[in-house]
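Go through this:
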Amino acid sequence: MAVVAVKNSLSEEGIFVIQEHFARTHHFDFRLERNGVLKSWALPKGVPEETGVRRLAVEVEDHPLSYAGFSGIIPPGQYGAGEVRIWDQGTYRSEEWREDKITFELRGSRISGEFALIRLKRGSGRNWILLRRKR
């Protein structure tokens, strides 16, 4: 009898990219591939590199998958005008993806580890907290 591997329906793999964005305000754009698009958040203070550190993540519109490789200048007068550089990229594995909480492992060249995005209950619903989890 052959053994067939079954993928956990809660687990999902895809690409991620973190782009440093020198726009009106300097920030980082954090993107996770999901359902054929890049789910996206603006990180005013970057990605937490130490366990327990929390960073604000503001959800923005989805971007096309082709944007994962973008590095260059967005011309003045266009949304997000300024320079964009790829800060890190790689793959990720999600453990849980709910409306108010996403847990995942990043596997990049600069940053790897376990993280969580947790939606804040107050406000517009666009504000999340990104934190690095303990292993």
Remarks:
- The chain has a mean pLDDT of 90.
